[in-house]
Design goal:
Chain lengths: 334, 206
């Protein structure tokens, strides 16, 4: 069978990335231009600055990727692009470049949902086996997804308020941990002990999550301790917080695996780089005989390889967009 | 010599295909929503109507600001991608200079774009499109100091007496810039004339 090469473009937040992936599983070349250093001086991603940097870099990144792959656009079978969700000004740059390339070279254009991309990052690690449960954890998402087969997504639960990554960032701010808060809270948690009685968030029978309660609990805790003149042990807060988050994520995910009688679990999204989550799931899945896949750290954050990987399966399914493809800030995969 | 002109810097977008001294295709419309998804279909319409292909275009004139930040980026992204991919000559134009092609009996013309908070992006041009005062962000108060030698033009409702609507002359600006040196598409970027709010605040605090 002829090999299929997909060029993926991702620009939904603060990474301008282009990648070429073969047959949805083999990464040929990826270029990621991260803006993290710029945004860190502002304490978070500034959408207008991010959009400005995307437009400055987009053609450079495309060219670099093709050079790295030693390929030309003629070798590409289809162009996949993140059309949403994300920062609208940022998405517009990737979508603008992708639609233009598709028009110039008369190549099929494949719209990819950002979360589908995160899920398919796992296919770059090992071939995804179905049926599976995917736990998607990121700055914008906390979803439990059941997949019966390729590119069939069924949401079985999700966050009712804050996403887990968002909650990490807010807790980081409250305990004075600099940007990017999430990874630093993770690191800090190993230096502390689980001494603070934080609640287990939304510990019920559903597959939904809620992180606003534990966020408020941390805010109140810090506030009250400060009022009383007590020093805050941020390592201990980080440890207590992370333990609770990991516990509820793993509890509900393991329950879903059992109930749906599924033996494959994948974890995806930026927060899947969290070591507490990685370790806990490794331990539990080994015990329960679950086949666990988590992307390499470099595929956890936003990148175009995952968009090209997902794009391959969308392409095979016949999913296409025209040159009037709209970028959408909020869009559902389901 | 076939040129493509793209201006998406305001909601009054202009897409035009020009051959030598003749406008072959002109799309001028006030588009208020989903402008980004309409640019390529409009270009495609023009090319199809003329039985041309993108490859037949020799030069791309891209209006790269000032104006709506998002609007500027939409046009620049399409233009630089075409120029990079097809190795086309690409030339940036000022959105204000394009408005300054409006004909007038007055000595000078002052094109303006609303920049909110009583500010406008404005420049001063003469009737040969020579730039007398370069484009910048300026208060309406400053603009009001100019006398009757100046014709004010803007698509926006600006709090100045006697502002006329632009009636742009595409050939005039193309002819003026037809021999300009092209820019490397990678370096063809927006000309916002304004920092982001975050950058401004940071400068204030530093």
């Amino acid at each position: 069978m002829k090999d299929t090469y997909i060029l993926g473009i991702e620009s939904s937040c603060d990474e301008t990335s282009v990648s070429i992936v073969k047959n949805g599983c083999e990464e040929i070349a990826t270029v990621i231009l991260s803006q993290m250093d710029t945004h860190s001086s502002y304490g978070g991603v500034v959408p207008e600055i991010a959009s400005r940097m995307h437009v400055e870099n987009i053609t450079i990144v495309i060219e670099e990727c093709l050079n790295k792959a030693k390929m030309t656009m003629d070798d590409i079978d289809a162009i996949a692009v993140t059309y949403g969700p994300g920062l609208i000004g940022c998405l517009l740059i990737g979508v603008g470049a992708a639609t233009t390339l598709s028009y110039i070279y008369n190549k099929p254009l494949v719209p990819v949902h950002h979360i589908a991309g995160h899920i398919y990052a796992n296919n770059l690690v090992s071939k995804m086996e179905f049926p599976l449960i995917a736990l998607v954890v990121s700055g914008g998402h906390t979803d439990l997804i059941y997949m019966e087969d390729d590119y069939k997504f069924k949401k079985i639960g999700g966050t009712l308020d804050d996403a887990v990554g968002e909650c990490y960032d807010k807790v980081a701010r409250v305990i004075n941990v600099p940007y990017p808060g999430g990874p630093l809270v993770d690191k800090l948690s190993y230096e502390g002990e689980d001494t603070y009685p934080l609640p287990l968030p939304l510990d019920d029978n559903s597959y939904n999550f809620s992180f606003s309660g534990i966020k408020s609990a941390v805010i109140n805790l810090v506030h009250n301790e400060t009022q009383r003149g007590n020093a805050i042990r941020k390592e201990d807060i980080a440890c207590s917080f992370q333990n609770r988050v990991v516990e509820i994520l793993s509890k509900k995910t393991m329950k879903a695996l059992k109930e749906y009688n599924v033996k494959n679990l994948i974890i995806a999204g930026g927060v899947s780089a969290n070591s507490g989550i990685r370790n806990k799931f490794k331990e539990l899945c080994e015990k329960e005989g679950i086949n666990l896949t988590i992307p390499n750290i470099r595929y956890c954050t936003d990148n175009a390889a995952m968009i090209a990987a997902a794009g391959y399966f969308a392409y095979k399914k016949g999913i296409r967009a025209d040159i009037d493809l709209k970028a959408t800030a909020t869009t559902s995969l389901f | 010599m076939i040129s493509l002109l793209i201006d998406t810097t305001t909601s009054n977008i202009t897409l035009s295909i020009i051959k030598d001294d003749k406008i072959l295709y002109k799309y001028q419309e006030n588009i208020l929503s989903d402008m980004s998804s309409k640019v390529l279909p409009i270009i495609d319409n023009g090319l199809t109507e003329l039985e041309l292909k993108l490859e037949d275009i020799d030069k791309i004139f891209i209006v790269n600001g000032p104006g709506s930040f998002t609007g500027i980026r939409v046009g620049v992204t399409v233009a630089k991608t075409i120029a990079w991919a097809l190795k086309k000559n690409i030339i940036p134009l000022s959105s204000l200079e394009l408005m300054a092609t409006t004909s007038t009996n007055k000595k000078y013309i002052v094109p303006m774009i609303d920049a909110r908070r009583n500010n406008v992006f404005a420049g001063i041009y003469d009737d040969e499109l020579n730039c007398i005062k370069e484009d910048k962000l300026i208060s309406i108060e400053e603009i009001n100091k100019l006398n009757s030698d100046y014709e004010f033009v803007s698509y926006d409702n600006i709090n100045i007496e006697e502002v006329i609507k632009p009636n742009i002359d595409i050939l005039k600006i193309i002819n003026k810039h037809i021999n300009d040196n092209g820019t490397n598409p990678h370096n063809l970027n927006p000309n916002y004339l304004k920092l982001t709010e975050a950058e401004e605040n940071k400068l204030k605090n530093d």
